[in-house]
Amino acid sequence: MVGGVRRRGPMLLTIEGGANWLREKVAARAAFAAGKLGTSELEAILFYVYARRNKSDAPPYMPSIFQHITVNAGLFPATSAAVDDWCEHMITQVLPALDAVVEWNPSMPVEECDLFNATAPRSVRFPLRALEPYYVPAAARWSLVAPDDVAVVSPFARSITHQWTRIETVWSSDQIWSAIKPALHTIRAGYTPALAPSEDAAWSADVRAGGWRAAVASVVESVVASGARLALIGCGALSLPIAAGLKARGVGAIHTGGATQILFGVKGRRWATHDVICRFFNNAWVFPAHDEIPDGARAVEGACYW
Q1: Radius of gyration of the chain measured on its C-alpha atoms
Q2: The predicted structure's pLDDT at residue 6
Q3: What DSSP assignment string belongs to 160-217?
Q4: pTM of the entire structure?
Q5: Position 199 confidence tier, pLDDT thresholds 50, 70, 90
Q6: What is the pLDDT of residue 39?
Q7: How far is the C-alpha of 196 from the C-alpha of 122, rounded, in Å?
């Protein structure tokens, strides 16, 4: 049952079952793509499908949906045409390419499941916490069987690089990463111009000019060039397109979302009182570096990631 309504879809694995599926894929060095849709992304896609797709008299996006997808989720440029293009790409190219998708949305669980049934019918389904290794026993942690080269796509690339040098101290109370650490390749993701009008934290000028498709292509090329066999992605609305692009290039990809920074001991306001994650914090954990905080950070859930 989902929200009092009988769920219609393939079997939903347990958290540990989903974690074991990820571990097997990572251990096999497979090219795969797994992840979730954020609420902002789900809202935009559903509005596009039901109100705008193939309609000559389509209504504009609701202001809240447009704000969430272009600011909170980082899609750019902030135009209806760009959002339409992204939504069409998601439902025709990205979601069908996913090997596993998370079912997690508490406000739209039936709509989320039905969307996946229509666009990703062959995908494995599991709960959100299956993506995050600290929620499962060590034997089910994909992070402990990571390949020799791992790429991380995040706006917090510099902080993550620093934290990797002392990851044993960050996770002193539990083993999240193998004692034989992979080589870590951090790829900095920029912020949408709506959040970062200055150069410091924004995408490059070339990428900004090319829009979200240019950003996806740039990240995919950087990951492939790094030689990484696995990529962890925390890049808002661009995360799943990047994951699908990497799978097509032979790289395993997990959209770890906000948990990307947690895996490397980078704190954010969202987790300050979290019933599980705040207990991991110790003196080795840090907040993002100053130049990794966009000018408009407070527009995103009160600066929840910073």
Answers
A1: 18
A2: 60
A3: HHHHHTTHHHHTTTS--S-SSPPEEEEEEPPBPTTT--SSSSBPPHHHHHHHHHHHHH
A4: 0.96
A5: low
A6: 97
A7: 38
pLDDT for position 194: 87
Residue type, 25: K
At 150, list the tokens.
């791992």
The three-point CA angle 156-191-299 to 5° equals 100
pLDDT at 200: 74
The pLDDT, as a whole number, for residue 9 is 80
Strand order in the sheet with 124-126: 124-126, 100-102, 33-35, 252-255, 230-233, 149-154, 183-188
Q: Which residue type does 115 have?
A: L
Nearest Cα neighbor of 14 from 125, 142, 141, 134 is: 125
Q: Under a CB-based contact definition with an 8 Å cutoff, are residues 265 and 286 in contact? A: yes
Of the candidates 231, 182, 235, the residue with the CA atom closest to the CA atom of residue 34: 231
